[in-house]
Design a protein that fits this description.
CATH superfamily: Replication Fork Single-Stranded Dna Binding Protein
CATH architecture: Alpha-Beta Complex
Strand content: 5-15%
Distance between the termini: 51 Å
CATH topology: Replication Fork Single-Stranded DNA Binding Protein
Radius of gyration: 21 Å
Number of domains: 1
Shape: globular
Largest sheet: 7 strands, antiparallel
Helix content: 25-40%
Mean pLDDT: 79
Oligomer: single chain
Structural class: alpha+beta
CATH class: Alpha Beta
Length: 336
């Protein structure tokens, strides 16, 4: 288990480096996004079982590919396919390689954000006091948490506070974390979440749960690393998405499927583990949209703009013409 000093040193090094730059089907995931507005949930984060992980979380990066619908289906609604970003494994991502230059052109920035990787962070721990009523809770009380950048930054920044003397995950002198949900501009806001001020030793029941079930190896919840064939499929899907095409189930359904898709052909072929979100639900209006990690500093998108970038699909009329113009510009840039 890494010490607090080691975590701080690694966070500091990461911060300095970045400043120079312009699954599962179980119910182990605690759905904090479903918390009632104005409520607070107390959680206690636990260490990663992987001794090589300095942190008590692991980062996940996914790319969303929107499609106009599913090819061959009448009145098909827009769908989205999630694919893993290869940068999770320290390798070059073919999609981001294509998208990164778009940010050099003001007219392509919105399109660039649309296809940029979306980060989330996987934690594990106990759920304490909460007003969220769950239909069923797992037998193992060690839950998983899928945390967005807003909450994650609060977790990370507090670790640099010199007044915190011990790791928050310490079994005896650790700290609880309070996830607070409010609204801002009509969307869920977690900016008032905070660490508890007092240390708390784990209870007898919590220690017993750790002894009985053990800690999770967080990297086991990351998507499967794509094979060479799957990388080629991802690139094809990306190009088709940008061109405004529908998702071709016959062509790509063996490897990836739209999130929540239950139409024709859903039971045929195996959906690659990487294609589905690992413990993250389909986007809803109350789910915060993170526009982080773009390759240069930009003004933050407004909630309405961010949601549109996340959920929009090729449209008709003026919007469709503008999308066609953008696609043409991208193709022209590639030829230069």
């Amino acid at each position: 288990m890494a010490t607090l000093a080691e975590i701080r040193a690694k966070l500091q090094a990461s911060s300095q480096q970045n400043s120079g730059q312009s699954g599962g089907g179980d119910n182990a995931i605690y759905p904090h996004w479903n918390m009632p507005e104005g409520s607070t949930t107390t959680v206690r984060f636990l260490p990663d079982a992987d001794p090589n992980n300095t942190f008590f979380w692991i980062e996940r990066a996914m790319i969303k590919l929107p499609f106009a619908g599913v090819k061959g289906e009448t009145n098909s609604k827009p769908v989205t396919v999630q694919v893993p970003c290869m940068e999770m494994w320290g390798e070059t991502c073919p999609i981001l390689t294509e998208v990164r230059p778009w940010f050099k052109d003001k007219s392509l920035e919105d399109m660039g954000r649309k296809y940029w990787k979306k980060k989330s962070y996987i934690f594990q721990g106990f759920v304490g006091e909460s007003k969220l009523q769950e239909d069923k809770t797992p037998e193992n009380p060690i839950r998983r948490f899928i945390i967005g950048s807003q909450i994650f930054n609060i977790v990370k920044n507090a670790l640099m506070d010199s007044e915190i003397e011990e790791l928050p995950t310490d079994y005896v002198r650790g700290l609880d974390f309070k996830i607070a949900k409010t609204t801002k501009g009509g969307y869920a806001d977690y900016s008032t979440s905070t660490w508890a001020r007092r240390e708390r030793a784990l209870s007898e029941a919590e220690n017993a749960a750790i002894a009985q079930y053990g800690l999770h190896d967080l990297k086991s919840f990351l998507p499967k690393k794509p094979t060479e064939v799957e990388l080629k499929v991802m690139k094809e899907m990306f190009e088709a998405s940008v061109d405004g095409e529908a998702f071709d189930m016959d062509r790509w359904g063996q490897y990836f499927k739209p999130a929540g898709y239950a139409g024709k052909g859903n039971s045929e072929g195996g959906s690659a583990p990487a294609a589905a979100p690992v413990a993250r639900p389909a986007p809803v209006a109350s789910t915060p949209v993170d526009e982080d990690d773009v390759p240069f500093e930009t003004a933050a998108a407004t909630p309405a703009k961010a949601v549109a970038a996340e959920q929009s699909a090729p449209a008709t009329g003026d919007a469709g013409s503008r999308a066609a113009d953008i696609i043409a510009m991208i193709r022209n840039r590639q030829k230069q």
